[in-house]
UniProtKB/TrEMBL annotation:
This is Protein SirB1 N-terminal domain-containing protein. Belongs to the UPF0162 family. Residues 66-201 form the Protein SirB1 N-terminal domain. Signal peptide: none annotated.
């Protein structure tokens, strides 16, 4: 069951913090107590970073390079190369304890801490590999004309390193093929709900990979809060219901997809699937 206050917050016009959204996901999956524990871990990380930035904080505003050097240096934030697809890398409570994650979860941590320490930064929903943009001015200058030529760096949150244009192009080709061309649209800032959607998709995929279908279903339900009429998400939820032996609910979602996307080749497959589900005894959950 989804928390009503969470879905209401996501659909409100209030500004949304990425860290709050990521912790909302944790709460929806595992409850308020785990969320509270994650917030304790976050506060501890903020305090530890403040200690490492002590001299810079005492002498004036800190820079993005100061924050990155501390996080990816003595504090030990890093991408999890060995267990990239582990569920722990998608869940913010685990990321804050382990200081390991995947690009989107590490980016959320860095963005939160940049905001906390007055560094202007934004997420980039780059194909296949979430990125960060750090501005080499201060967050207090955000009200100035954004078209002014403040220098900026594109950061790989998996490593904390500044990327060259060539390296960004290589990432794009890895995601889209060797003929892909880097365009301005690929480096547009991502809105909070876009980042949340990406986080939920990778989390859902990780749960499915590890055959934890109950948790994957919660992620699917959360995605449907953001886009309730999306036929593809309804189709995916139907597959999860089917795995959980909720045959009528699966059939309802499949029929919605068939109605909305009659020309999609998958619709013919799902028509046969719906007929098969009708023959299976119903299981109530």
């Amino acid at each position: 069951m989804l928390k009503t206050n969470i879905s209401d917050r996501w659909l409100s016009d209030e500004p949304l913090s990425l860290m709050t959204l990521a912790l909302d996901v944790v709460e929806s999956l595992y409850g308020l107590e785990i969320r509270d524990q994650a917030e304790v871990s976050l506060f501890a990380l903020e305090q530890e970073l403040a200690e490492h930035l002590g001299e810079q904080l005492a002498s004036g505003p800190v820079s993005g390079s100061d924050v990155l050097a501390a996080l990816y240096g003595p504090l030990g934030l890093a991408g999890d190369w060995e267990r990239f697809f582990a569920i722990e890398n998608c869940l913010m409570d685990k990321v804050l304890i382990r200081l390991r994650g995947i690009p989107v979860t590490l980016a959320i941590v860095v963005l939160h801490l940049c905001e906390r320490f007055g560094v202007r930064a934004e997420g980039i929903g780059f194909p296949g590999h979430f990125l960060l943009r750090l501005f080499n001015d201060q967050a207090t200058d955000q009200k100035q004309d954004q078209s002014t030529s403040a220098s900026q760096d594109i950061i790989d949150p998996f490593t904390g390193k500044v990327l060259t244009r060539h390296e960004i192009e290589q990432l794009l080709r890895g995601a889209r093929g060797n003929l892909a061309k880097l365009k301005p649209k690929h480096l547009q800032p991502a809105e909070p709900l876009e980042v949340l959607t990406r986080l939920l998709n990778v989390t859902k995929a990780s749960f499915i990979h590890h055959q934890q279908f109950d948790q994957a279903l919660i992620c699917s339900q959360l995605l449907l809060v953001l886009k309730p009429e999306c036929p593809f998400e309804r189709r995916d939820r139907g597959f999860l219901y089917e795995q959980l032996d909720c045959n009528q609910l699966a059939a309802d979602d499949f029929e919605f997809f068939i109605e909305q996307c009659p020309e999609d080749p998958v619709s013919d497959v799902l028509k046969a699937q719906v007929l098969a589900l009708d023959l299976v005894p119903q299981t109530l959950h």
